[in-house]
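Curious: explain these tokens?
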Amino acid sequence: MAQDRTHDADAMRQLAALNRIARIAVQDLAWQPMLQRIVDMLSQEFGWEFVACATVDRKHNEFLCEAVAGIDSEASVGYRRALGSGIVGRCALTGETFDIDDARNHPDVVDTLRGTGSELCVPVQHNGRILAVLNAESHRVGAFRGQRALLETVADQIAGILWAAHLLESMQLLNEELREANVALDHHAKTDSLTGIANRRCFDAWLAADLASAAARHEPLALAMIDIDCFKAYNDGYGHVAGDQCLQSIASLLAYVLDDAPARLARYGGEEFAVILPRSDLRDACVVGDRLRRAVQARSFEHRCAPGGLVTISVGAAASDAFAEPTAGAMIEAADAALYEAKRRGRNRVAQAPQKCGLSAAAS
């Protein structure tokens, strides 16, 4: 009679444990935290000395210990070993349950517990695919007698949830890869392949957005168009490879000078660059433009086909009035007119275009 009551109590205890595991499994689909909660519960509920769960890494042909509970063991979280090696490795490879009542001197037992007396190893499978292994070990011989069915039931319970977690993790990884690919593609689409700075497409988007923002905030906006002087002669004299290197050097120098300024630098096309200056008026644009001009001149890039023997730049500046709403085309046209004026006056200088189209500008 007492034996029957003990048996009933054990059965109720196991049923309660299975219910707890079912609740744990559906709390969330985060793989590792779920496994850790399950092994913690098994260790606490049944007093098992060591419980672990290892997932199957088919890419590397290994199993990976994801969660452990109980006494210290060499098999901690992150522990890896080849599929087929040891009891856990054989279980992960074959999908068989291993219930070793006396593990002492057993040829396949890897003694990570340093004195393993018994071991119970059960596969977690979904539709014939081995996802993980539940492993219990003890220093005592026969510690898991009568527990095989319990652990196999636990494995069956969590198999579907683990598969769903696996699919979710795979989808999250794919989504992250897709996001990174889209970011790289977007960056590539907006970057000039030669100089590494923003390209014309990016400049057009910037200018439209900054003009709209400036109009909404009643703030000025300035634009500087920059052209390398006598660049055709440079290409003809030094060759197109050297010409490309010159463009790269100038772009790097301009970016360096503008690094501490609230400015947007882009390659507009050919040997022409553009700088957008939010919350800046015409005077600000001229100051920045002359700072860039002097930096290029000071760098002393050789240009034997130019009158002064050095690479120089000309700058045209224009700015919108704080209460005007010019179009992007009007801004570019005004800055280009200023650039043409700088060229006409002898190059290597900054010029401002006449006022028009809601822009503030004046010759200097």
